[in-house]
Amino acid sequence: MNVDCQDKVWTLTLNRPDKRNALSAELVEALIAAVQAAEQAQADLLILRGEGRNFSAGFDFSDYEQQSEGDLVLRFIRIETLLQLLAHTPCATLALAHGQNFGAGVDLIAVCRQRVASADARFRMPGLQFGLALGTGRLAALIGGQQAHQLLAGSQVFDAAKAEQLGFIEGIQEPDTWPAVIEQAQQTAGLLDATSRAYLHQLTGCPQQVDRDMAALVRSASAPGIKQRIAAFRQAATS
């Protein structure tokens, strides 16, 4: 991951283009550390974006067969930990998405308070197909329970136009216009100090979801047979 810090603006760029920026354990820990460092530095704006063809393909399954079920559960817990840090950071947050995005990668976009995507962006959250309740509550809070239910029940792919219609993203902007998007976000973030932003985020967010989301994630991930469920899901996806 690349971290760029300029004028109280921190840009975190997922930089595993050969893996479509899938979230390995190491990348998740690097993101957690970077978010904490940005808070300590009292950054105004935290930007998430991806290098290469897409923002993020979600959980990195490449070595899951060699890991214990306990290791896999911990990895999912650490992703939820990252999402909660981003949900409650006093920094303003901006996701810049493009390409094909899946699962936990979509959760990373959803948790940011401002979300912009290019016209080629696609999104899919298939976690419930292998019994994982990650990001469900946040998506429902963002786009409404009924619309979230429809998307997740069928593990539907939705494009940028549909995402904008649902309110999942706030606008469709091509990457060559992103510097202007960032400049505007920086100006808006700078209108409030960190304490005021913290109050704003606390009072307009859903703090009651913190324990609920973590509890749902832990219960779903720790149910026996997570490896078998992942294997069945991946086999069905390739058949």
Automatic annotation (TrEMBL):
CDD domains the UniProt entry points to: crotonase-like
Protein name: Enoyl-CoA hydratase/isomerase family protein
Gene3D superfamilies for the chain: 2-enoyl-CoA Hydratase, Chain A, domain 1
InterPro entries named among the record's database cross-references: ClpP/crotonase-like_dom_sf, Enoyl-CoA_hydra/iso, Enoyl-CoA_Hydratase/Isomerase
Coiled coil, from the record: none
Family the UniProt entry places it in: Belongs to the enoyl-CoA hydratase/isomerase family.
Pfam families to which the protein is assigned, alphabetical: ECH_1
